[in-house]
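step=encode ok
step=design start
structure_in=
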């Protein structure tokens, strides 16, 4: 199972998302610190889930980081994250991600 597959499984089980996009951006970081020749170190995740309703950006990120704890401690060097609730207005502060 790839790292992206493991992340998809965990996020789906934990948050039952309306939508989930996981993009492996490792190729953009070749030669940088934390990059491995085999890749799967840098990811961009966009997740939309009702589980995030009523939560601020930091609380949403904490939940995702907890769900992906094993991956973040081992293979994943960087994670760009957008964690949204279905009712978030477009362009709201809730959709601004941070890099870990």
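sequence_out=
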């Amino acid at each position: 199972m790839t790292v992206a597959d493991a992340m998809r499984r965990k996020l789906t089980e934990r948050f039952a998302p309306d939508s989930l996009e996981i993009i492996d951006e490792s190729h953009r970081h070749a030669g940088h610190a934390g990059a491995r020749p085999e890749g799967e170190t840098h990811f961009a995740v966009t997740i939309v889930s009702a589980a995030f309703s009523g939560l601020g950006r930091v609380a949403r990120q904490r939940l995702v980081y907890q769900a992906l704890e094993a991956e973040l401690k081992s293979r994943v060097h960087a994670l760009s994250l957008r964690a949204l609730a279905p009712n978030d207005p477009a362009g709201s502060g809730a959709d601004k991600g941070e890099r870990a």
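step=design ok
step=annotate ok -> Residues 95-100 have pLDDT under 50 and may be disordered.
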